[in-house]
Amino acid sequence: MARIDLDLAHAYKHGPTHDGDFALLPLKMTFEDGGAYALLGPSGCGKTTMLNIMSGLLAPSQGTVHFDGRDVTRTTPQQRNIAQVFQFPVIYDSMTVAENLGFPLRNRRFSKEVIRKRVGDIAEMLELSAILQQKAAGLTVDARQKISLGRGLVRPDVSAVLFDEPLTVIDPLLKWQLRRKLKQIHRELKLTLIYVTHDQVEALTFADQVLVMTRGRSVQLGAPEALFERPSHTFVGHFIGSPGMNFLPVQVDGSGIHLGEMCLAAPPGRVLPHGALKLGIRPEYLGLVAAHTPGAVAMTVSRVHDVGTHILLSVGFAGHALKARLDADAVVNAPGDTVWLQVVSEHSCFYKDEELVP
Amino acid sequence: MSTLNKPVNQRAWLLVLPVLICVAFSAILPLMTVVNYSVQDIISPDRRVFVGTEWFAAIMRDPELHGALGRQLIFSLAVLAVELPLGILLALAMPAHGWKSSVVLVLVSLSLLIPWNVVGTIWQIFARSDIGLMGAFLQWMGIDYSYTGNAVHAWFTVLLMDVWHWTPLVGLLAYAGLRSIPDAFYQAAAIDSASKFAVFRYIQLPKMRAVLMIAVLLRFMDSFMIYTEPFVLTGGGPGNATTFLSQFLTQKAVGQFDLGPAAAFSLIYFLIILLLCFILYNGMQRVGTQEVAVARD
Amino acid sequence: MTKIKVQKRSIFLLAYLVFAMLPIYWMVNMSFKTNSEILASFTLLPQNFTWGNYQTILTDPSWYSGYINSLIYVGINTVISITVALPAAYAFSRFSFLGDKHLFFWLLTNRMTPPAVFLLPFFQLYTTVGLMDTHLAVALAHLLFNVPLAVWILEGFMNGIPREIDETAAIDGFSFPRFFLTVFLPLIKAGVGVAAFFCFMFSWVELLLARTLTSVNAKPIVATMTRTVSASGMDWATLAAAGVLTTLPGAIVIYFVRNYIAKGFAMGRV
User: Fold this and answer.
1) Is there a single domain that holds both residue A86 and residue A123?
2) Within a 10 A sphere around the Cβ of C151, how many other Cβ atoms?
3) Helix runs in chain A, H state only
4) B53 against A120, higher pLDDT
5) Alpha carbon separation from B288 to A45, B6, B213 (Å, rounded)
6) CB-closest option in A86, A107, A144 to B184
7) Are residues A274 and A187 in the same domain?
8) Which residue, among A275, A273, A276, A269, has the nearest Cα to A249 in the 3D structure?
């Protein structure tokens, strides 16, 4: 188990000159010992690069990596004692399941007793005990990925387990089961787990802390609640949540927040800088209220979507389109109606140049 | 040939027809001729006598045939024993990416693209003590080397020539197998602290198994049919020390113009090869289907 | 991978490359000497460098016609082999039909036939048909082993293309020929490259049949080279030059298909 400190940047080509050349823009990050972290972001954001730098498969072009205070930047994955699970199963077909699971231990010359016990424990945790003596060839994809996972977890002294989108090839139902398994394992074994994914549901349910990344930039590291309530960047607001946060351009001056023709008071206790800002409010918090409630704005309904568990309301205001998420039993309006929605409240976030205004 | 889930369609025969015609023309017609001759005694173009299996029996008893067959078997086995491991080592040593891999690929494949008689000529020149680099070098080392006079030297030279000529085929096939291994396997092995040998045994060798079977099949069969290179190099000599089956047959057919026995021997030769091919091919199929079943996941 | 291991591999590779190039270098070396120099002294590099041998070959029709003849029949053979192999490989890859496995095996056995076995029948057959001493004769004879090989290689590559592509094309209204030429073929480009390379290779290097079926008009270079003994002894210098020139087409071909071969290796069977 180890604490991982990153202070680095990475560019795949020599002599990077501008931001676009970097696969990872300069960052400074700490992953606490025993924590479950998710690296979340769209394709190409650099999350796999970061994972490979942490595991030692890649050396950063600038900067350092520390494990428990030790500089491991130039060391190999073996020397760092990490385990990594890849997107598709890496299985040795000529061996049995038990031999596959025990492979890392055999290579490190653990005693037969220790190996047998450890393999047994892990197999039980992953529900592989029944097929331990079967040859690994010819098993289903999820069994193979479970074995891959097991190989990553079997070493008792592993400093961190890194996952690179490991559930991509798995059926949705099994995905859910495996995710629960992983959380269970995390609680039991108290390992440092770092999980790369582009699926926010996966990230938010698995991790204690999520790092949101985009185009090489590490945008925000925080607990799922923090990412939801107070996204520190408009990208996080967009990316997290289904649908993402609504954004409205506003002008703030001495008299209040100017939204189109309306002028609203700032939320109590908040002092906002003057100038052009963006107001962000999540669909979940854009609630239906009575007309002329302070902080509310009249909008025109363009579409009503009854999803069953909730209602998705598409509204328009002064040329901007927004979405509101209402309870299933909310009063349903028809397209064309005017509704009043709570735009400014304690849940509203304000952004200047895409960054959150505290 | 993979056997998963293919729809039955007898009209596919139409697609196969052109191939059938070509090969029939090149193979079946001549084969029928050979069968025809093998059961006749052709004393002169107009006088033919049906002799049944007489030629077959005679050939089987012919000590010259036994000699040629024995030499052929030793040669083919020796060739496999050297070329297989050497080819694997070569594949492991060849670079995987970049401009270096292209250059090495071209240089290594060169010997495969030289007409077989030129191969014989190259080694003829190379191995002579008076004008050849290797021959002169061996003389200089104190060895009284002569591939025309000494049977052992002749064997050594013929074997060396074949290794030089054909190892790249094994190498290229093994290289193909290696390239199909995704990087993640090597990365995972590094993370699992696998030794070089473990990587070879559990990752590389299984992947190469299928192509290596192809290599074994091709090399064994081709070496069994070898004619041009040893013919140009040693002419089968000294004496008949390096006369293998194909040359033996050609001598009988063309040199001695004994059509009947030659045809009979041709058939036996052909049947031996068919048998060996059948055995190896089935072995390949079994390995092949296992690969397919695995890949399906 | 530690540095020491990399060095061992590089040393081995280097040693092998030296082994591979040495005989060729020696032949090239000889090709730039005169016969008298060859017989008189033993030198690692030509003392009197001469282009004379190459000149002889390139100006003497009995020599260079050999090259042209070889190129002609190898070209014809490659084209025919690939053309007939493509539909057949497609049939083996996509469909199951009566006798398909046996047919495939039988095809393969033709690749395994010793040409010596068919020497005489071919001789008689082509004489009867009146195709003796023509390029076509050799091209057709070489179909014996090249067509099965082409079918085998192409089938392997075609297996790597998912059948969904065929089905989608059918749904989109493509006729089979159009689908095959415009959709399918580009996808197996690497396979066609590899197959063509091997057809070229095996036809170019074959001696026995090529020599037996030709005498004057279509005499290939391989046959010309086996007759370089004259009254003054073996014409080593010209022979060496001829050897070098015969190796060149192969080197050129492989240079051009090297990317296909590399990609083909990564994709499917060789």
Assistant:
1) yes
2) 31
3) 47-55, 77-80, 97-107, 112-125, 141-153, 172-189, 200-206, 224-229, 234-239
4) A120
5) 40, 17, 10
6) A86
7) no
8) A276
pLDDT confidence bin for B292, thresholds 50/70/90: very low
Instruction: Report B:16-75 residues touching C (Cβ under 8 A).
Output: 16, 18-19, 21-23, 25-27, 29-31, 33-34, 37
Euclidean distance between CA atoms B47 and C116, whole angstroms: 25
Mark whether A50 and A121 lie in a shared domain: yes
Tell me which long-range contacts C184-187 makes (C-beta under 8 A, separation of at least 24): C184/C90, C185/C86, C187/C161
A92: amino acid identity, one letter: Y
Closest CA to C118 of B117, B254, B240: B254
Q: Domain of A270?
A: 244-356
Contact A138 B203 (CB under 8 A): no
Tell me, yes or no, whether A63 and A167 share the same domain: yes
pTM of the predicted structure, to 2 decimals = 0.75
B174 part of a folded domain = yes
Q: Is B202 on the interface with A (CB under 8 A)?
A: yes
Q: Which of A186, A204, A238 is the last residue before a domain boundary?
A: A238
- Whole-angstrom CA distances from B71 to A167, B213, B218, C66 are 59, 24, 19, 34
Structural domain count of chain B:
1
How near does any CA of chain B get to the CA of C160, in Å?
11
Choosing among A48, A72, A103, A158, which should be mutated to test the B contact, i.e. which has the most B CBs within 10 A?
A: A103
B182 touching C (Cβ < 8 Å): no
Q: How far apart are CA A219 and CA A213, in angstroms?
A: 5
Across the interface, whether the CB atoms of A82 and B202 are under 8 A apart is answered no
Tell me, what CATH number does A26's domain have?
Answer: 3.40.50.300
Domain range for B203: 64-295
The answer to whether C122 and B295 have CB atoms below 8 angstroms apart is no
Tens of pLDDT along chain C (270 residues) come to 445 556 788 899 999 999 999 998 888 888 888 877 777 777 777 777 888 888 888 888 877 888 888 889 999 999 999 999 999 999 888 888 888 888 888 887 787 777 777 777 888 788 888 888 888 888 888 888 899 889 988 888 888 788 888 888 888 888 888 888 888 888 888 788 888 888 888 888 887 788 888 887 778 877 777 665 555 556 778 888 888 888 888 788 877 777 776 666 555 443
Residue of C107, C159, C207 to mutate, interface with B, max B Cβ within 10 Å? C207
Give how many domains chain C has, as a whole number.
1
Determine contact: C3 vs chain B, CB below 8 A.
no
Alpha helices in B12-146 (DSSP H): 12-23, 29-38, 54-61, 63-93, 98-109, 116-127, 133-140
* Separation of alpha carbons B246 and B230, rounded Å: 10
Peptide bond into B238 cis (omega under 30): yes
The predicted structure's pLDDT at residue B294: 36
C112: CATH: 1.10.3720.10
Structural domain range at position C66: 61-267
Work out the angle at residue C51's Cα, subtended by the Cα atoms of residues C48 and C56, and round it to the nearest 5 degrees: 125
Written as one letter, the residue type at C227 is: R
Q: Count structural domains, chain A.
A: 2
Lowest-confidence pick of A56-70, B3-17, B190-204: B3-17
Final residue before a domain boundary, out of A200, A221, A238: A238
